[in-house]
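Duplicate of #3305? Posting structure anyway:
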């Protein structure tokens, strides 16, 4: 394999696998196995002690998952990755790897409803406080942090607001304070590379654009290898003091010869081992297939979404279009700075007529699927206030940008004329009385 740096379109087809050494198979084989034969007792002991890296048991590592991990690492420009069972598992593990009871995390308010809920309730029950701050002003992260803050967390392109997160600004604050920035880039693969802007760890729900066909749930955590865990030893004892769960290993020292992978290796050999959120090799195969066409699909998603935003802007029944390419001022600046390869496939809008009009519109769609998902090749629509964000109170809904009449579209890669025709038909069928009300 060439060592010349490759472009995303090439990386997604080639990184991490050329051909199966045993059979010559070009497609990545699905290694549907639980365990792996050891060569000898010495070999087994070396694997367990990490003096040699290799397969032991699929809960902590699998060759099909490993190709997905290598490909995602190459695509993002990181140093190593860990495939896990869902996007939610990736978010949870990325934080649990460095935050324990009594610690806190400072997170953007602009989050997927599931992450918000996990932080506000489940993390709280685990004794980890999540402090939510408005990312409009990056300094809010600095203001909310203290000596027990273990991470800053945010999404690159959070829906429904679609306000792009100021990655470089918050990463710089993190570097100054010794706090890593963990970015969920689920909605912006290929169009944004958070590591290029200083993020330290990237997480994905691969369920969305990476898979791209709505068939499998999965997630991945990618380590950028740039955070100085050793230089911030007081804040990160879990990486710098002997770990009793792994016969006293000091993670920043134990794996030094392998590169700056202390964070991600610890996640694999302790959290994945103990909590068990492992990826399915079959699902990893699906994500590898999805990855192969990801850059191609993202181009189409972005192109179609722009057409949809243009169409909605001119429609008399639409009060507001929420789309990064529609913003002005600071939001537009951030969108242009971070979404260097297109404004993404998500478009929100507010119908005159509020919640009732939103419901009528969704019920009238024929091509768009009405589902709780984004990033499928098919076009999808949802009314967040009654679905994805339903478990949040009205105030929390507003804080995340969900108003009663908001409709979210995940624009697919169908022909644009058919997408617009469906929107046109559904808008025309919203009862005039609802609009007038
Ligand atoms: N992060 C974001 C931004 C999401 O949109 C989602 C799911 O919608 C998740 C994480 C959770 O992913 P999963 O459904 O794969 O657990």
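Output from current build:
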């Amino acid at each position: 394999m060439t060592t010349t740096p490759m472009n995303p379109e090439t990386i997604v087809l080639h990184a991490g696998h050329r051909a199966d050494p045993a059979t010559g198979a070009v497609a990545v084989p699905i290694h549907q196995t639980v365990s792996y034969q050891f060569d000898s007792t010495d070999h087994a002991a070396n694997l367990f002690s990490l003096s040699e890296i290799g397969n032991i048991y699929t809960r902590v590592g699998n060759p099909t998952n490993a190709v997905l991990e290598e490909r995602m690492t190459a695509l993002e420009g990181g140093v190593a990755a860990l495939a896990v069972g869902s996007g939610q598992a990736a978010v949870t593990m990325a934080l649990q790897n460095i935050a324990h009871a009594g610690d806190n995390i400072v997170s953007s308010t602009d989050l997927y409803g599931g992450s918000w809920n996990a932080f506000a309730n489940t993390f709280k029950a685990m004794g980890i406080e999540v402090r939510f701050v408005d990312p409009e002003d990056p300094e809010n992260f600095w203001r909310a942090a203290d000596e027990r803050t273990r991470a800053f967390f945010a999404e690159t392109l959070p829906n429904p607001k679609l306000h792009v997160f100021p990655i470089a600004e918050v990463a710089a604050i993190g570097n100054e304070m010794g706090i890593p920035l963990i970015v969920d880039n689920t909605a912006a693969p290929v169009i944004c590379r958070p590591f290029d802007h200083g993020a330290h760890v990237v997480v994905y729900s691969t369920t969305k654009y990476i898979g791209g066909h709505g068939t499998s749930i999965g997630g991945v955590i990618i380590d950028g290898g740039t955070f100085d865990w050793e230089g911030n030893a007081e804040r990160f004892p879990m990486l710098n003091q002997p770990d009793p769960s792994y016969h006293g290993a000091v993670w920043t020292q134990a794996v030094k010869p392998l590169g700056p992978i202390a964070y991600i290796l610890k996640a694999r050999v302790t959290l994945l081992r103990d909590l068990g959120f492992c990826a399915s090799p079959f699902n990893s195969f699906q994500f590898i297939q999805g990855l192969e066409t990801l850059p191609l699909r993202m181009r189409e998603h972005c192109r179609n979404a722009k057409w949809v935003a243009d169409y909605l802007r001119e429609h008399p029944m639409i009060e507001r279009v929420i789309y990064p390419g529609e913003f002005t001022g600071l939001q537009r600046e951030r969108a242009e700075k971070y979404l260097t390869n297109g404004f993404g496939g998500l478009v929100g809008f507010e119908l005159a007529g509020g919640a009732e009009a939103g419901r009528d519109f969704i019920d009238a769609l024929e091509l768009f699927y009405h589902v709780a998902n984004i990033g499928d090749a098919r076009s999808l629509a949802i009314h967040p206030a009654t679905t994805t964000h339903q478990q949040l109170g009205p105030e929390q809904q507003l804080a995340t940008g969900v108003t009663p009449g908001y409709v979210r579209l995940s624009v697919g890669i169908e022909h644009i004329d058919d997408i617009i025709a469906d929107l046109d038909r559904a808008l025309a069928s919203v009862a005039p009385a609802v609009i007038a009300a």
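Confirmed duplicate; merging threads. DSSP finds 17 helices and twelve strands in the chain. The CA atoms of residues 223 and 413 lie 31 Å apart.
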